[in-house]
Amino acid sequence: MLVQKLQWALGLLIVLTSVLSAVFSYRARRSSDARLRGLNAARMNIMMGLMLIFIALIQMILFTGSTLRVVIGALFMVIGLFNLFAGLRNHSHFSRTP
Length: 98
Hints:
Elements: H1 2-30, H2 34-62, H3 67-96
Helix pairs in contact: 1-2, 2-3
């Protein structure tokens, strides 16, 4: 029962971050202001990083651990953490820019 609730929660978080990533990507591509374009691209990176982390958590926690599944989960976790870090760094940079 608890595993099923965790699976639903992570699934909803993946869908939410995926939709937000697409929204911020659309806004970044349509913006004519460079600062807003950078902020929206940074937010897209943050959402994409969170989405990859949630996918990695599903891979590592909810399924039986085969070696391939653990390696793919770890790869998604590393890429997600890199996107999250880069997005936070870029967001702080563009937030300070006048």
